[in-house]
Amino acid sequence: MDAPVSLLAIDKLYQALDLHPFQQPWWKNALRWLKQHQEWAWALLLFVIVLNAYHFWLEFRFSKSKKALEQTLLRLKEKSELLEHSQRVAIVGELGSSLAHEINQPLTAIRNYSEGGLLRLAKRRPHEDIVPVLENIQQQVERADAIVRRLRALIKKRSIEKRPSHVEALIDDTVELMRFRLQKQNIAVIRSLEGTAVEVNVDGVGIQQALVNLLNNALDACELQRGESGANYLGKILIKTEYSAESLVVRVLDNGTGLKHDNPTEAFASTKQEGLGLGLAICIDVMELHGGEFAIHSVLPHGCMATLTIPYHATQH
């Protein structure tokens, strides 16, 4: 014969399933408790009101701070652009003799061709003999115009603008700007390309400014190394571009003295007597604008390598 089922177990089961006939709903129990403890109910209500008020106050403060931060960032951006512009103007001052020489060359050629043309006219030579002279004058005018355009593009005050650009052409223009100083100091520039060159969405003026800074530093380091090594020293600057599937890497390697400062990328830190100490700091700023990286380190036995890394995905935004 089976043992009788315990009624206590059944009663507990009904309570667990909220099916007990004498068990009231939880909300009725809650109302009863609130009636019995009204001081706690009012305290809870007051706490909720205070909590909401504090939440709205925090949102107001956050919104106000956000607007102030946006205005500060805007002012910092404007000051950064002014600082970069000032440094570009300083670069033009450093390149003054080079630019004067570069512009003087086509002007001298134009004068010589003009004198030759006048001489042919005086001898009543046929106009077919004058045409080549005029064509040569036109070529020299275009050459002088290109020099002035490169100069204006470098120093003009402008907002940052990214557009598809041929970095190889930017490097060519930069080397052309520095050509007189390179020849004067007898520094050889070697170009190297790895991969297939493609257009990259960059701020062309910013990239050129970074390249001018790096070439200026390399030239200064090579000149110092010549003083240490003697007349047999041959300064070399290698500009290597590496195009991969994800990024473009530009390396500037020289055989100069190497780094002379513990933290060369620190703003206003310079080993030059008249240097502003902004060159490498601006290189970092330009790379950050492109979502890239800037690195610089000494190499053995002497020299320095600067690396600009520009990821393609970051330049699309």
CATH topology value of the largest domain: Heat Shock Protein 90
**Major β-sheet annotation:** 5 strands, mixed
CATH superfamily of the largest domain: Histidine kinase-like ATPase, C-terminal domain
* Total number of helices: 10
- Percent range for helical residues? 55-70%
Distance separating the two termini = 84 Å
Low-confidence parts, pLDDT < 50 over ≥5 residues? Answer: 267-271
User: Which CATH C-level class of the largest domain is it?
Assistant: Alpha Beta
Q: Strand portion, in percent?
A: 5-15%
CATH architecture of the largest domain: 2-Layer Sandwich
Given the C-alpha coordinates, what overall shape results? elongated
What's the domain count? 3
Kindly summarize this structure in a few lines.
This protein is an alpha+beta fold. 61% of the residues lie in helices and 14% in strands.
How is this structure best described in words?
The chain is of the alpha+beta class. The protein has 3 domains: 1-93; 95-157; 160-317, Histidine kinase-like ATPase, C-terminal domain (Heat Shock Protein 90, 2-Layer Sandwich). The chain contains 10 helices and 7 strands. Strands 2-4-5-7-6 form a 5-stranded mixed beta sheet. A two-stranded antiparallel sheet has the order 1-3. Strand 6 (293-298) and strand 7 (304-311) form a beta hairpin. Helix 6 (167-177) crosses helix 8 and helix 8 runs antiparallel to helix 9 (279-289). The longest helix has 57 residues, at 38-94. The termini are far apart. Mean pLDDT is 79; it is low at 267-271.
